[in-house]
């Protein structure tokens, strides 16, 4: 029995060892489906058909004017999207989402309208006025962006006014409540933000309804009823968005701030494993998350996304934690490896990270962050060590009077991360924050000048190495990011910061004779050393 168990165990281990590492590749069919032109045309045709069917509810038969109107409206929508939101126009899934939410809006509006006109006495109270028309723009804002939300406000308001109920007050109310809703939902951090947006929509509808009611000489009891109904519609909008948002997130594989809030839970299996098996890396990731989030917020980018990316960026280090300096004790396993082998182990944390992220079904932006956070940087520490070894061999060759041509060549590409370079602003910020956090650990009793020098050196080094060439960060934004890094590091290193003892010292410092100015070159060397370590063992 025992040999059988041992045999099974050995076989299981072998199967585990033989397991191929997962590689992140977008399937060809997915790309084709996303950009296929016939599919895009089919979406437009289907929407025209939907508009015609919607018109049938009232007339009962297809008229030329209805077909023509649907055709004109859909063509206008296509042109508006092509001109103002080409990224949505050329992405079939996003285009489908925009049309799907406009269709939901139209369907609700038409249902309420058809029902209300068949209720005796209800038309005078204009109950069809109170339709939750802000649903489409609010959903699009939460799932795509504010610009798309504003375009959808205009499109859905015009569609409702032309296909459901031709009313100027209704058009004005829909436009205003939609824009107000978009304003309130543009950055949602908590569920209650959706409720706030819903209430804002309700209050705007109330102001419009009461305003138009007074102008048209409406009864007081009708106005009071309309006021309550408006608030109810606003709350219903919030409930509907809360219900539809997670569903649409999953169907269209889109991410909202809620996605990042859920992923920022430190109880995630992978993060718990990182904390247990690589505590140094875990602590480093938390620090990088704070620095990167603050920098992203400083330039108006998605701080929550940056935080989550930072949590998972070094997750691959759980495979061989002892090979990374932040997890090492007295023993350094690299002393038993060649520089090339050490570099291979260091570089593999990116591929291992992608493998783990795929295994745990992490979202695409997180996988991209793991893959791109080192770009094509050089593992400088081990590259320099390899060069040093060759230099030592050259000396030996000279002493032994041998041919220098026998010396092996050092291939620099073997010491570089495979990339790609950061493709988004958030990953660019992550790359810089990662290197800066690692290097900052080499600073002992730094002055503010040392911190500024460290940030300046690392950012310049990444720019000179062309690591940020494919990332859409502007120089103005990089300047803001640097300021944010200095502020964050000042807060993190607060207890270590060396302050001048009195004002005399400060005066001396400006005269170039202070402790601070004497420490300047030392700090520079330390920071440069930090950079080397950061591109090598550390980060
Ligand atoms: Fe790192
Ligand atoms: Fe890393």
Automatic annotation (TrEMBL):
Stretches assigned to the HD domain: 281-439
Membrane spanning residue stretches: 39-57, 64-83, 95-115, 127-160, 166-185, 197-215, 227-248
Gene3D superfamilies per UniProt: Hypothetical protein af1432 (1.10.3210.10)
InterPro entries attached to this UniProt entry: HD/PDEase_dom, HD_domain, HDIG_dom, Metal-dep_PHydrolase_7TM_intra, PgpH_phosphodiesterase
Keyword Membrane (UniProt): yes
Start and end residues of each stretch annotated as Disordered: 503-539
CDD domains the record matches: HDc
Protein keywords: Membrane, Transmembrane, Transmembrane helix
Keyword Ribonucleoprotein among record annotations: no
Protein name, UniProt field: HD domain-containing protein
Species annotation: Methylacidiphilum caldifontis
């Amino acid at each position: 029995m025992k040999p059988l168990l041992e045999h099974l165990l050995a076989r299981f281990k072998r199967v585990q060892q033989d397991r191929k590492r997962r590689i992140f590749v977008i399937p060809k069919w997915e790309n084709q489906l996303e950009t296929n032109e016939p599919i895009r045309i089919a979406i437009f045709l289907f929407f025209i058909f939907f508009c015609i069917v919607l018109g049938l509810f009232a007339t009962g038969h297809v008229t030329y004017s209805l077909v023509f109107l649907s055709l004109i409206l859909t063509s206008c929508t296509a042109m508006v999207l092509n001109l103002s939101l080409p990224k949505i126009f050329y992405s079939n899934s996003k285009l489908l989402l925009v049309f799907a939410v406009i269709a939901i809006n139209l369907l609700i509006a038409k249902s309420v309208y058809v029902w209300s006109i068949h209720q005796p006495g209800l038309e005078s109270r204009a109950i069809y006025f109170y339709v939750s028309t802000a649903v489409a723009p609010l959903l699009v804002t939460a799932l795509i962006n504010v610009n798309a939300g504003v375009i959808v406000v205009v499109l859905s308001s015009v569609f409702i006014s032309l296909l459901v109920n031709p009313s100027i007050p209704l058009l004005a109310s829909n436009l205003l409540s939609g824009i107000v809703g978009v304003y309130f939902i543009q950055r949602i951090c908590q569920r209650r933000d959706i409720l706030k947006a819903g209430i804002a929509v309700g209050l705007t509808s109330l102001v419009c309804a009461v305003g138009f009611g007074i102008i048209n000489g409406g009864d007081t009891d009708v106005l009071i009823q309309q006021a309550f109904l408006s608030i109810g519609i606003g709350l219903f909008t919030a409930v509907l968005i809360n219900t539809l948002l997670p569903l649409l997130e999953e169907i269209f594989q889109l991410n909202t701030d809620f996605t990042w809030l859920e992923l920022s839970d430190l109880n995630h299996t992978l993060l718990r494993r990182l904390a247990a098996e690589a505590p140094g890396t875990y602590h480093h990731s938390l620090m990088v998350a704070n620095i990167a989030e603050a920098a992203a917020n400083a330039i108006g980018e998605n701080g929550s996304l940056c935080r989550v990316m930072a949590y998972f960026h070094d997750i691959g280090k759980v495979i061989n934690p002892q090979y990374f300096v932040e997890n090492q004790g007295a023993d350094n396993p690299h002393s038993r490896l060649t520089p090339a082998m050490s570099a291979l182990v260091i570089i593999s944390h990116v591929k291992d990270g992608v493998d783990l992220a795929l295994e745990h079904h992490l979202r695409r932006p997180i996988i991209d962050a793991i893959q791109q956070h080192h770009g094509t940087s050089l593992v400088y520490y081990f590259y320099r060590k390899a060069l040093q070894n060759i230099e030592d061999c050259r000396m030996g060759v000279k002493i032994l009077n041998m041919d220098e041509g026998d010396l092996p060549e050092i291939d620099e590409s073997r010491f570089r991360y495979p990339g790609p370079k950061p493709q988004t602003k958030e990953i660019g910020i992550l790359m810089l924050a990662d290197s800066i956090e690692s290097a900052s650990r080499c600073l002992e009793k730094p002055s503010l000048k040392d911190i500024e020098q460290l940030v300046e050196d690392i950012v310049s080094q990444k720019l000179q190495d062309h690591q940020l060439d494919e990332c859409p960060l502007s120089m103005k934004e990089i300047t803001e990011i640097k300021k944010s890094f200095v502020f964050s590091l000042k807060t993190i290193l607060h207890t270590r910061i060396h302050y001048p003892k009195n004002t005399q010292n400060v005066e001396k410092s400006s005269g170039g004779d202070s402790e601070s100015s004497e420490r300047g070159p030392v700090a520079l060397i330390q920071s440069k050393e930090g950079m080397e370590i950061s591109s090598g063992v550390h980060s």
